[in-house]
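Trying the structure run again after the queue cleared.
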Amino acid sequence: MNTIRLSNEQQLASEHLSGPGLTLAVPGSGKTTLLMMRTMTLIKEHKIPPQNILTMTFSKASAEDMKRRFKEIFSTYTGKTPEFMTIHSFCFSILKQYQKKHRIRLKLIDGSGHSKFMVLKDIVATISGDLISDEALEQLINEIGYVKNMMLSEEQFKEHTTHKSFDKIYARYETYKKQHQLIDFDDMLTMTYNILKSSAPALTFLQDKYPYIQVDEAQDTSNIQFELLKLLGGSQPNIFMVADDDQSIYAFRGANPQNLLDFDQHFGRAQTYYLSNNYRSTTAICSVSNAFIKQNKARYQKTMIAKNTNQQASPVTITAFDDLNGRNDYIISAVQEATNTGQTTGILFRNNSSSVGLAYLFYRENIDFYIKDKTINFFNHFAVQDILNFMQLALAYNDVNAFERIAQRTNAYIPPSAVDYVRAYNRGRNVFETLLECKDLSKQNRQIVSNYKDVLITMQNSTAISVIRLIEKDLGYLQRIEKIASRYDSNSDSIKRVLTQLKIIARRCSSITNFISEIETFKQILLSGTTYYNSPISFSTFHSSKGLEYDCVYIIDLLEKEKTDSEDDLTDDDQLLVEEERRLFYVAMTRAKQSLNILYHKFEEGAYLKEISYMQFLKGLHSDIITSQKHIRQAAPIKNNTAALGETIEHQKFGFGKVSDLQGDIITIEFHDKIRSLSYSLCKEKGLL
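Done. Tokens:
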């Protein structure tokens, strides 16, 4: 029927018949093959009717893939196909029966003339009086899902959410759905749980229908999902889970790997199996990944064994760059060299926005690529829209609409009454000339605004990159985003990273009009899907790369969550976050089959970046499995007549400081708050020194 040969570990796990079973499967160990073979073993060897076997997973793509794999492996099988579905689709099927019985009609909020995104946006505006950014709204949506998946009470909301009015927003959202007979994906879980908890006949029916339950990617289960599985399993559960606690990376959605660690407590004494063989990655990649993840404390002890015996495989490489420009050039050159070799390449990153600048450079270099995630949201980010609105005002300095959109984005306080004055009396002039006539503008802000009209004129004839810097510095945009971040109790770094990506595009544009055109063209390319799905080069976040593999992987965007210096000083919650971040990086590393390249840059916008904490650990591993190198680029040395030891020098961001060291292109300055090492050439290029 099939020609698949199982390893001893796979064979042992596939023969598990009854009672709770947990298989801990390392990356690339063939867990889907195991599930297919166990399913057929139940059917053929133990005569279990296929309709009594339910296999659940967490994504529609995974469920469809398992159906396809089952039919491919057992192509001569003519019996009924067992059920493969997501947990959400399983719950939705129960809700449909519930609606039919009780003669009610519930609709999914998205796709029913309503939009969860817009409903919550309106609710936030009503309650707080603020227009919430897309980024903050996405976090709010995640937090609503989190409290439901973790089964938190209202009393527990505050310690797990960030929005100051979360409880009011949550209550209003629930009321809105009830009034309009709407549900979201999280409601599918909670409603199904409540139905089965309160209806013994319904629960017994499902327990009789599915006496054998299999769960793939079980490390992604949330508390509500785990409780559902416990209900379905009953007092004598035949539940077989395949998981890797080291790949649990969805805590922000409510995934709780502790449930796996407490598996015996939930289901009684279970049989535990291990799939230790990795058939994907080289020895070096497996060795580095093993050493890295073993730093985590809350995990099952297991070791990945490489079965990829490619003797020509190189060690894992860590490469340091002075800046993003050097890193981007390096990746583009490497990818171009691999053209027509058949090599698949994955460029993996922590945050979606990190890919935009590099993807744009690929587009400009005519390199085909595929972006797995929806980076289109980048162009809707308020910082992108702000820059475009500033530029529009520079092109047409009498554009009152553009002025209204940026009035609260400079370092001057422009009251609403002054904006109304400009709208009423501008009459085709430079908006800032009209603004200066308004008596509601304070003396201090009048002095600031008086410079703005000249800045707009300068912007008209400047390059796009110079214009962005004028907006940041001369119009006070950087100061404003610091205040915006402080207002929402967040960090401005994520906003600045958006600006950094815009500058990558701007460096290729000669003018404002050229920049605006390029932004729109590239946005449409991403929106229309004209990036190539079948391209051997893929851009993906760490999260979305899970389950995928590439011959060569480049890991970029190595950003560290804020925390204390020593893990010994961390609270329990902080320790959970650190271990989640470690698991996320582990997932990214184990996507690589032949070549794993970890890239980071030391300077951004002329400022020295702190090296992420786990880089030193990786560099300390044996040179047989990992090597560390610095990418050398030609940089102009500092001239003594330009900067000298002991000289007091002014940095536009950090203020005055004394030069304490000069090494090549690196200048070390003692500022009033701290000592900083900066790239002198970058600082000069950007007008910071």
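The chain has a mean pLDDT of 89. Worth checking whether this holds up in the mutant runs.
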